[in-house]
């Protein structure tokens, strides 16, 4: 009997607690839903990029105060527009000379910021804020770097060719794939990754190709977060033995060892 009473009390307490959590969650969600969802923008190292921010209605905002800031730095201002011109007073030093607004666009409610010569350290969350309108929106800038791989012939005898693929200057760390002429994945040696003092990655890998018949081998280097992919092809002529009609196959150092 006493146990049931405790159970009942507990259940009552618990449901009150859940209700409180639910209404708190609703409150918090409502608060956020008034803001536009964070936009993701990918820029490549050295590029110029536009961080979008605009009002729904094309009203002239050039007389208002406009603020662009990095949310992870304090004060983090990278562009402040005040009294119809830029106020460079509190600007983050690394952004000096690299940010601009278009006054033509400000006349139509478009506060999009151009950031030039993008650096790896520019990656982060940016806030566009118009204090007088209480208008706030966020852009997440992802910075990448990519370069075309180079294939070298490491050895070449009558039955097989060993190819090496190398690609320098990637960010973030990419993956390297070998493909045959039909786009099938080849098993190859492990990808070696080096990181330079500039924070960029160099990847390389070797594959052994049997010369059963002529083939076009592709080395593809790709990075998912930045949606970058670069590839290079190498033609491997087949030799003419008696087995030239049979299907070619590919072996790799790793599968040999197993
Ligand atoms: C990724 O890149 C491909 C080719 O460049 C493009 O067609 C595709 O729309 C991109 N996807 C995203 C999510 O950016
Ligand atoms: C391997 O050597 C042969 C003979 O010199 C040449 O014809 C062939 O193109 C070479 N293969 C590659 C992949 O360079
Ligand atoms: C190689 O194959 C081609 C086409 O099948 C043929 O014409 C040529 O005579 C062959 N060469 C040798 C050295 O067997």
TrEMBL record:
PROSITE patterns documented for this protein: IG_LIKE
GO function terms (MF aspect): signaling receptor binding
Domain of life where this protein originates: Eukaryota
Leader sequence segment: 1-23
GO cellular component: external side of plasma membrane
Presence of keyword Glycoprotein: yes
Keywords on record: Disulfide bond, Glycoprotein, Immunoglobulin domain, Membrane, Signal, Transmembrane, Transmembrane helix
Residue ranges the record marks as coiled coil: none
UniProt subcellular location: Membrane
Domain Ig-like as annotated: residue spans: 46-128, 131-237
GO biological process: regulation of cytokine production; regulation of leukocyte cell-cell adhesion; regulation of T cell activation; T cell activation; T cell receptor signaling pathway
Chain intervals for the UniProt region annotation (Disordered): 223-244
Chief localisation class: membrane
Family: Belongs to the SKINT family.
Protein name (Swiss-Prot/TrEMBL): Butyrophilin subfamily 2 member A2
